[in-house]
Amino acid sequence: PGTYIGYGYGSAPERYRRGRPLTSRRRMGASTAGKGSVRTAAMAVSRIVTMIWALVNAYTIRLHAVEVYGRVIHEFDPWFNFRATQYLVDHGWRKFFTWYDHESWYPLGRPVGTTIYPGMQFTAAGIFRALNALGFEVSLNDVCVFIPAGFSVIATLFTALIAKEAAVGKHKATAFAVTAFIMAILPAHIMRSVAGGFDNESVAVTAIVATFFWWIRSLRTERSWPFAFAAALSYGYMVAAWGGYTFVLNMVGVHAAALFLAGRFTWNLYKAYSVFYLVGTALAVHVPVVGWTPLRSMEQMGPLFVLGLAQLAALLSHQKRRLGERDYAAFRKRVALFGGVAALALLVALEASGLVGGLSARVRGLFVPHTHTGNPLVDSVAEHQATRGDVYWQYFDTVILFAPAGAVACAAFQPSPARTFVALYFLIAGYFSAKMVRLVLLLGPASAVAAGVALGAVADWIAGEAATLGEVTDSSGLGGASASERGDDKKVKETIANDRPTGGKGGGVGGGRAERRAEKNAKKKKSGGAGKSSFRIDEAPRLVREYFAANATVRKSIAAATLAFLVTAGRSFVVRSRVMAQQMSEPSIMVRGYAPNGGVAILDDFRESYLWLNDHTPADARVMAWWDYGYQINGIGNRT
User: Fold this and answer.
1) Which residue has the higher pLDDT, 9 or 557?
2) Beta carbons within 8 Å of 404's beta carbon, 6+ residues apart
């Protein structure tokens, strides 16, 4: 002991290898590993419980109307959809597409097969036939009533998968669970998916988030592009289900264009977008109500031009490997010039030829005041009005506070194709939702994903701080990285330094380079501190991280306050969601009344009146009514 023979700098004397400090460090490592495993297990259990809760509540929160009023189809359009589904089941798909309905919109009538998006009707008919073939005796009415609630569960899963793709590294699993929790009970999603609300949007939202998930999944790696086929199939179903397919197509096109123009071209992106557009468009043109619209509508020309942009980007990428730097720069300028001129000339030629029509009244209404769309029928519908500011708090509650932070984080930090998509999706959906209250529906999944990405990272940080409470509370020296233990480590270093002999230029065998380097750094710090400050604004994040890393008490206090705030916000969100779910589940076809004694009575006057028409009027009787009530007269009263 005391003789330093045969050990180089950086290792400890034998007595300190056998002493308490190193033993304490070993125990600390074992304790830290144990705490890490407990934390991992606790977080895994929390995520699983959250997911189960989300999937169960995504279904049950939408059943309020069924529990109070029974299995009744709501509102007006759903009755037309149910009647169309019944015709499909009774007569088959061939007659369905040639069906001319003379009992609605009298005296003109309506060619149903070529004027509706039949995806939902085919879905309901397929589920009805499958369940009965498997021996489950269910009525078509019941299938149509429960489809919105069932598809909400699928939409919740796909929305959570989008968040998992967009989250960073270790936060993926937590973002998945938090997003599922939000999307399951988000009022902006519930508004079109309560049981009995058999309308197109109830299945279309599921198709939207499925398309978006498969699209960003196709961009994960250089070999992921085959997932674009799944995105194209989901998009094809979306086209068949709802007229909002234009938004989905343009959203993918804008994302691809942003990546191309930002210089983030990859051959995987090129293949994925080409597959998505070509296969998706091939499916879309086979939907009767759509036809050749994707190639003849001005509002769908953008994605077609993005396909052309993809070809130019591929050409540039190919030539970049063959040409020198100067030649490539000149070639790129020529391609940009001639490509832009050719695109502009093609657009002018198409518009002049009449092959491409102008923007529809509804799309124009997104860029001009809603009263100027030019279509009185569109302007008369309440859900086409501009969105008031209080609507966002009503349909999103505290989620609207967290979603912008998540979108900014996706755009600014560790950008990837998935994170860029989430930022663009939130921005674009937010703009359109402000123009038309109906489009708040599109902002729902975007807000859930953006908020889930942000809150997932925060939740993991809080869990990490909770798992290392020993930094503040453990004074035994055997727990986490406690203050006493850090003091022991310091004493070890000081003792080793004092025990080392000094001598010669190198400070002895154990001194030498380490000491000289430490002295040199100390002199640099001292001289730097005495002179002018060298602080730069770009060092602020690093200094903040260093401050919090050195102040465990501050970190954990902030984590505790953040946790308290999130718990309060979460309770507010759950309460509002349940209240909104009950309010939006009240059907217009039945009314709940309250007697003076406090009793509740269900007033079923509308359905009784429609049934009276069916029983007491001639079969060819025609009833004059506004078109909303006309659908109920058709579906229940069976009259024109």
Assistant:
1) 557
2) 426, 450
